[in-house]
Amino acid sequence: MEKAQTIPVQRPSRWDKPLDASMSDADVAWLRTRAPFNGMDRSAFPKATPLDGILRYDCRLHRVEPGEVIVREGDYGNSAFLVITGSVRALLDSLPESQLGREATRVIDWLEALRRYLGRSPFRESRSSEQVSINATNDRSKLIRDIDDRQAVFLQDTDAIFNRYENVSLGPGELFGEVAAMYRSPRTATVIAETEAALLEIRWQGLRVLRRDRKFADTLENHYRNHWLPVHLREIPLLRFVPEENMARVIESTQLRSYGRLEWNADYKKTRKLPPNEQIASEPLVLDQGQFPTELIIVRSGFGRLCVRHGAGHQTTAYLGKGQFFGLEEISYNAFRPESMPSIPYQHSLRAVGFLDALAIPVEVFAADVLPHVRKNELPEVVGHLVGTKTDALKDRRLNRTENRRTQPATQKQTSPQDSQESMGSSFESTSLLEFVVQNRFNNGRDAMVIDLHRCTRCDDCVRACADVHDNNPRFVRQGAVHDRLQVVQACMHCNDPVCMIGCPTGAIARDMNTGVVSIHDSICVGCGVCSAACPYQNIAMVEINDKKGRAYVDEQSGRPIKKATKCDQCRGLPSGPACVAACPHDALVRIDLSESKPLTQWLEGRS
């Protein structure tokens, strides 16, 4: 047989794209003299990822000036920062959005809405000079400045801010932002430069390898275990009645696990069109069907796919999101079953859909310290009838419940049996609809735009209504993936995992903590396009802007057009809510949360 021709290419390597191409040998040598790197054991690092290589390719040096905002509360990021010289302050109190150059959402009345409509410019994407740049306002307290080769937001009168808001000072050798970087969670504090300082930005890939150094790893894990793990476990409704003594053992034994890549949006563009079987096979396996249960998995962030073997491939049965469990049914069944009944293995496989961050509680700890304090109606249905056979355990649990009810705050959320079942995964009656949602990662959307094609007449009233309230330029395109009678429109879904918010240099794209809406704040958007490139659904557009007379704004130095990122903002502030929904004459359009199956299921049940 004739040998097939081959094409020799250079194999991609991990460090083909350094975080900062300007990092030099001199920078690396200097960093090696600073804590904690001067105390690290070089032999602890693999030959493929030596310590010097991490400093060279996974790190970037920043010079920050007093008053510069380094990270903002609520932002998402994939890097941590180490203070090398100087000092910064982390604000424990929340800073008003206006201090960061963002506009707070203001609900307007119908009269003002009508005034805006009649006074709108005939030209697309018109902005006032104040909207183009915060530097154009008379208020000079908040400015965007160029620092070295980047742009940054500054606060003035920082002394007053530090006096007014509770904060802590961080100095050389101290790290911040590592929890958000490692576990894809919003940053919990705004950090401002107190003095001129040198910071080392470390991307999460490098941060993980640095944990090869035992002392550094212990520092990171102890910080998370002492400060954040108890908070995260207490947020889980199933664990709310666990006594403190038992919870201490749960905290001590819980393992932190991550699967897949944080940059799942890059992989998604390559795998979204694969057949379901191939896409499932490409996803990292967390636990396999048929394996004897060893731990309960609780999703902290990201998404998981439950599937069962089906012929030569796999079939999706549900998807998991934040706060949902894997293995609860099997573990509780095995714990409550009579001795005459055999134990059961995991009934499904769990795979990471892109990225999955999870807490793993060992089965023996969960059975001893958690299960006796779980209400019967919160256990899986298949287990409920077994609980009664364990009379002693039931009696003990009832006593514990009675005691816990007495101490339970009146405002604590009650969990219904239906909520409990949904905590083990979201699914649809239609397997093809389930595959469609997961295949396209629409389960990331907490406010997706869905059109019922059986009712839509293609009149485009929704598009025109959107354009009317957005500078004559609609913020969505009435096109998108179609399944049966449903079309998921190409409009911002205000995602649970908003990868678009990672990397914005000024924090112009941000989530409203009250409404969950992800908005772009024009006056501090520098038009870099990072958010647009990161959006896996291509729902952010970069547009050139004009004044109300149609004259284009250009950069005063380069003469190039000024661009702004634009996307759906849910018509924030409008008394009618999203204009697209209000304008539809056929009730064909809805904004809906697809991270759970219940909202879409109920909406479809109400359709004729």
Short characterization:
With 608 residues, the protein is of the alpha+beta class.
For the terminal residues, how far apart are their CA atoms? 61 Å
Shape: globular
**Count of helix runs:** 22
Given the helix and strand composition, which structural class is it? alpha+beta
User: Which spans have pLDDT < 50 for at least 5 consecutive residues?
Assistant: 405-413
Strand content: 15-25%
How many E-type strands?
A: 24
Mean pLDDT: 85
- What can be said about the biggest beta sheet? 6 strands, antiparallel
Gyration radius from CA atoms, angstroms = 26 Å
Q: What fraction, in percent, of the residue positions are helical?
A: 25-40%
List keywords for this structure.
globular; single chain; alpha+beta; four-stranded antiparallel sheet
Structure explained in plain terms:
The protein has 22 helices and 24 strands. By secondary structure, the protein is of the alpha+beta class. Strands 11, 12, 13, 14, 15 and 16 form a six-stranded antiparallel sheet that branches. It is globular and about 80 Å long.
Please give the structural blueprint.
Blueprint lengths: L24 H7 L19 H7 L1 E6 L4 E3 L7 E7 L2 E4 L18 H9 L10 H4 L9 E6 L2 E6 L2 H7 L2 E4 L4 E2 L1 H6 L6 E4 L3 E7 H7 L3 H14 L1 H6 L9 H10 L1 E6 L3 H8 L4 H7 L2 E3 L7 E16 L2 E8 L4 E2 L1 H9 L12 E14 H8 L10 H7 L3 H17 L9 H6 L8 H9 L8 E5 L8 H9 L7 E7 L2 E5 L18 E3 L6 E3 L9 H5 L6 E4 L18 E4 L12 H5 L5 E4 L5 H8 L3
Antiparallel strand pairs: 1-10, 2-9, 3-8, 3-10, 4-7, 4-9, 5-6, 11-16, 12-16, 13-14, 13-15, 13-16, 17-19, 17-24, 18-19, 20-21, 22-23
Helix pairs in contact: 10-14, 13-15
